[in-house]
Amino acid sequence: MSKDVLVLTDENWKTEVSEAAGPVLVDFWAAWCAPCRMIGPAVEALAATYAGRVKVGKLNVDDNPGVAQALWIRSIPTLLVFRNGKVVEQQVGAVPQSQIAAMLDGQLATVEVGARRA
User: Does the global pTM surpass 0.85?
Assistant: First the structure.
């Protein structure tokens, strides 16, 4: 896994996602999931591209069922974007890297507009 991708767990979820200052993209996945393996490289590439602007992490739902159950993750891969600990974007299933990037760009634009108004 890329150095830019955080390994998220039930134990570090609060610190890394719930209390994070900026947008956080979380890829909910499992090793046995072929579509998860398909989008893995895209998530890693985006982690490098958005480093310093968006935190990117992966949570293995088999190893960390607590968070997955609390968020009602029923299908994987599921990509969620969080801001201030709340889900602001969601994508279920394998999607192209460009679609994930568009989600992130939309969230960054929202953050930048809010910053200009303040």
Answer: yes
